[in-house]
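User: Please predict structures.

Assistant: First:
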Amino acid sequence: AALALAAVAWGLALLVTRQAERLAAAHRALAEERLRQSEDAVESVRALAAELAHKLSNPLAYVVANQQLLELHALKAGANAELVEASAETDEGLARLTQVVRSLQHVAALPTSSQSRLSDVVAAVLPMVTPRLEQRQLLLTTQLEPTEPRTVRAEAVWRLLSQLLSAAVDVCKRAPGRPSLSVRTATVEGAPVLEVQIHGEKLEGWRAGLEAVAQTLGFSMVLSQHDDRLVATARAAA
């Protein structure tokens, strides 16, 4: 009887093990397919961004040059206040279009290699996510130490950094004075790390849910608060 029970137990254990292996294989296949689709989507966005930037940049350059020429002639002719105001609004619109073209160019230049350096990806992504900081007149400093090549998805870093800086802007809006931000990359214990810090006084905590967002993007995150700064440290998954 004991042998029979042992045989049944062994058979059940073998069945459970095989089912677990099949389930793990299915999860790996699903994860690989999602990664492939994500990479294909990023490549499509890059190609579209490159095409749009190319088609917009030359006409925009002509318009900017003509606008500058018109302003010069208007200045010499003694333009009235209405014309001066219209010219200023045109300059503002052209500046926004120029920023759009630059953003498209940065998207087109995103690293595509699956073995990218986190520091390189962050350097490419930063110009796309910092205009909001400039609008808020927030000082941003960077310290991008070269990190070892690892499997880092540009799209994931883009989304993570956007979320972190968006949360940082929300914190800075509620803080007195003029808080400043810093972005740093480094290699800690063999893993590439992205760190965002807010420096200021009476800083409230980070937005809830950032850890979960980081995890879905392939990073583990630790949020901490000190007397004069908030720190978000995201470590790339092994």
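Second:
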Amino acid sequence: MVNKRVKAFEKKYQIGISRTSVGRRAKLIMKDNIAQRKEAWGAIAEAMPVAIAIASSGEGTTLYENELFRETFGLTKENSMDRSPSELYYNPSQYEELIEELRREGSVGGREVRLLRADGSQFWATVSMRTANVCAETVIISSFADISQSKSVTDAYHRQAVALENIFKNIFENIYDAVVITDMQGRVEDWNSAAKRMFGYSRAEVLGKSQEILHPDSQAESLTKKIIESIKVNGRWVGEINFIRKDGSAGVCETTVVPMLDRGGKMVGTIAVNRDISEQKRSQAAENRLLESIQLRARLQEAVAYLGQEALMGARLSVLMDKAARLLASSLNVELSNILELQPGNHAFFVRSGVGWQEGIVGRATLSAHNSQAGYTLRVNEPVFVKDLRVETRFSGTPLLHNHRVVSGLSVQIPNIGFSTGKLTETKGLKGELQAAESKEPWGVLSVHTTDYRN
């Protein structure tokens, strides 16, 4: 048995040993070589500023551990060499995986592993491995760096990040307002449940698509550009936006847009918070119309009272008509008004009074009653409202209206209550009251016109 060991030793270290002096000389040489190897390993290990362990590559037994290694694992010189390297790992199979990687790749660098101290406590460390040839023997040199503290901080940050992400997701999905996240090209990157309720599209339908699908074609491109420029200057954009739902209906939202930044502070997209104010706008518009109606009625009542007072004071009919035309245009906030007197034969109107017309029209011009707004008003015997004269089909506008670029207008009949040229015809009733001598034929038409679209 001794002879076999000596032969193996001679072959490995190329040391010639006489067979006649096998016993004592072999033992002395082996002890001397082991001491030399330990000294070499120690010189390497103790010079390193990290925990070092040296193990044989064949049997895997621990050959040397430096002082930092023993401090890291809570070992003493007496018990540090008693365990195999795999026993240092919380999961021993992980050591086998590292050895396999070492054989395959030639080295292992900075792998995070969970290790065990001598007292059984666990800690995190990075381990690096490589092979080396020391005193003609191939060994595995493993270095360990305790990262428990940094790992704890990292884990705390990770838990905090996860918690914040969960909070954000909870807010994102349950907030009342529609939140839309887009990239710098205006493509949708995320979309919460409120956005689906507000715009009608599901998240899957809009991801990767331009948000221009939500806005009228006339304003989509310019709106995106305006918002981006405002964010670059002011850090945000706040305003009202007209939008179109999936079903084609229109709405209005109050929107706040803020930048989405990367870790370097570069703007990579936008976050828009939208609140639907369509119903509020409709209510406000209805209130405004009611208020305008009340104010208009009050102005018209004041105008009628004023004209009535002027008539009782003996004002001439032509003067009253001129004042009526001016008061009507002012009360209704329009540019044009006129009083048209129906001529005998009912084929034409004389422009008796008016406001806003070109010079030479009022008091001089005669207009045809055929296929005109005034003639149509006589025929239907009711007020006629024109939203847009340019597309009107009930009659054609007269050249006078087109020349003045009229768009919207309103006309009503003026009944014949005994008007004659320049004066009122009055009759006395049985009790002496002032009464109008009415006629079945209308006297003319009162109309107002504007160059703006009125609904």
